[in-house]
């Protein structure tokens, strides 16, 4: 019996498909499909081809969306993107009839009807979440948490993470956290109970009532965290090993949430109670033990999104409105030194207290600890550890105005969307245009794979935004700045927490 032809409409540009036709195995790659999924599909296609007895000429072929071979299209019903031509009609009849001229006319009308969504440019900036509200959310989410187990990728398998290392993450590692949450149980309404009593059904003993009440239910969420310098093999290892074990243990009650560094789920962040530290390098690998390390504590839009991230050890990165942690090891002794909490003169008192808490609870006891205010730095260790004293910013006014927009044709038409206030460097999409407003300038950031059409449309959108902000905040007129990827200036990079080199595509 011949196979039933498939429909072209089944193919989603964000997905990858394998079509097995016995004598041929086709792998169709959507243009917007993840690179990791493509690699997995190619490997799976080879294994699938070897599983069954096939003719000698059987082969695995791949087709990128828009470049499909005719032999692949033939497997689908009515897939014909060739312009039909009626050779029985002359040129005059074609021009007068509904043929080519009609198609050209329809295309022209469709072009005129192309829409652009610029709504995000006219919406007000998202206000920061109040500390009390953020603390209430943290408390509620942690009350629902029944237990949390951590795992870290060591070699080719995941090992259990010691509890004392919870809150410490490394940029070259992958972590898995299994969280078990209590799910609230809905009990019968009082009205229904009253009706039952009126009908004579309410005369039950206390033991019977307790027996009839449903037991507490639970849900499991697995958070997969990947450092920005970690290989994607960690995710593949998780999906083919640990995830399958969890699914067998908690059938129907498991949800997997994948996250990358600085793009964490707020609920996940809440479990560390603002003590979320990201170190450079790899866990258990000595990273120049005698070299000082500098960390910046920063809150993006909400206390839920507070992180302490290692940055370049350079005094020019200090800022009077933030708190920093400086770890200075002693050259003469192993695993000993001093850790400073540097409190900027204009920093938030709540963040200053948090810096002291991190200093006391999250670093090795072999290090002595000291809290210092800006201007009171000890010359012998602090400036020697951080390097020569350089000029640094004495304010962070830009934090009150910073907004990041993405301009893209991804939806089939030009649209501008705003990133949440907790954005990071990896939100800069290389194939799109990004608009960054810091309250003084509007930067039009151009990626290396951006199309000319997007550049022209984004420039118009940027001009519209500047004009709109001039009418809303006439006392803060914005200037337009063009910046290309890799040539960002300090006024641009300081809007991002822990700006570093751009992440490279990893296998």
How would you sum up this structure in a few lines?
Keywords: Actin-binding, Activator, Cell junction, Cytoplasm, Cytoskeleton, Nucleus, Repeat, Transcription, Transcription regulation. The chain has 507 residues and is α/β, with parallel strands linked by helices.
Structural description of this entry:
- The chain is α/β, with parallel strands linked by helices.
- The protein has four domains: 1-104, Severin (3-Layer(aba) Sandwich); 121-185 and 215-283, Severin; 288-394, Severin (3-Layer(aba) Sandwich); 397-493, Severin, CATH 3.40.20.
- Helices cover 28% and strands 26% of the residues.
- It contains 15 helices and 23 strands.
- The strands form five sheets. The chain has a seven-stranded mixed sheet with strand order 9-13-15-14-16-17-18, with helices on both faces. A six-stranded mixed sheet has the order 6-20-19-21-22-23.
- A hairpin with a 3-residue loop joins strand 21 and strand 22 (441-446).
- It is globular, with a radius of gyration of 29 Å.
- The chain starts with 5 loop residues before the first strand and ends in a 14-residue tail after the last helix.
- Mean pLDDT is 86; it is low at 82-87.
């Amino acid at each position: 019996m011949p196979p039933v032809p498939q429909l072209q409409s089944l193919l989603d540009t964000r997905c990858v498909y394998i079509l097995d036709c016995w004598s041929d195995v086709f792998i169709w790659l959507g243009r917007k499909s993840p690179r990791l999924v493509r690699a997995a599909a190619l490997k799976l296609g080879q294994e699938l081809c070897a599983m069954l007895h096939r003719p000698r000429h059987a082969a695995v072929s791949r087709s990128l969306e828009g470049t499909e071979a005719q032999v692949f299209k033939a497997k689908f019903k009515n897939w014909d993107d060739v312009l039909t031509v009626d050779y029985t009609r002359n040129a005059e009849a074609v021009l007068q009839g509904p043929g080519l001229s009609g198609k050209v006319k329809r295309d022209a009308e469709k072009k005129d009807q192309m829409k652009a969504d610029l709504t995000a440019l006219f919406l007000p900036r998202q206000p920061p979440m109040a500390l009390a509200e953020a603390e209430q959310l943290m408390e509620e989410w942690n009350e629902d948490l029944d237990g949390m187990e951590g795992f870290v990728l060591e070699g080719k398998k995941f090992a259990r993470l010691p509890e004392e290392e919870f809150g410490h993450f490394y940029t070259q590692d992958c972590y898995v956290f299994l969280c078990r949450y209590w799910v609230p149980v809905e009990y019968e309404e009082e009205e229904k109970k009253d009706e039952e009593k009126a009908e004579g059904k309410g005369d039950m003993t206390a033991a019977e009532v307790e027996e009839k009440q449903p037991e507490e239910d639970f849900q499991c969420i697995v958070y997969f965290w990947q450092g920005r310098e970690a290989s994607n093999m960690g995710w593949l290892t998780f999906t083919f090993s640990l995830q399958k074990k969890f699914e067998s243990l908690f059938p129907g009650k498991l949800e997997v949430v994948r996250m990358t560094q600085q793009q964490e789920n707020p609920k996940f962040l809440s479990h560390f109670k603002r003590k979320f530290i990201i170190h450079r390098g790899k866990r258990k690998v000595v990273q120049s033990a005698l070299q000082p390390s500098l960390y910046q504590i920063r809150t993006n839009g909400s206390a839920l999104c507070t992180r302490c991230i290692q940055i370049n050890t350079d005094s020019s990165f200090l800022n009077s409105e933030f708190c920093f942690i400086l770890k200075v090891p002693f050259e003469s002794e192993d695993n000993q030194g001093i850790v400073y909490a540097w409190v900027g003169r204009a920093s938030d008192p709540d963040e200053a207290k948090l810096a002291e808490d991190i200093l006391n609870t999250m670093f090795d006891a072999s290090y002595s600890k000291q809290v210092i205010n800006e201007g009171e730095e000890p010359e012998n260790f602090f400036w020697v550890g951080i390097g020569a004293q350089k000029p640094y910013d004495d304010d962070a006014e830009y934090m009150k105005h910073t907004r990041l927009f993405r301009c893209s044709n991804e939806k089939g038409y030009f649209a501008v969307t705003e990133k949440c206030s907790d954005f990071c460097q990896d939100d800069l999409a290389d194939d799109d245009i990004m608009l960054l407003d810091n309250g003084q300038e509007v930067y039009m950031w151009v990626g290396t794979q951006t199309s000319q059409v997007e550049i022209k449309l984004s420039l118009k959108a940027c001009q519209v935004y500047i004009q709109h902000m001039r009418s809303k905040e006439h006392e803060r007129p914005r200037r337009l700045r063009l910046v290309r990827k890799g040539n960002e200036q300090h006024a641009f990079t300081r809007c991002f927490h822990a700006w570093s080199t751009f992440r490279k595509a990893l296998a």
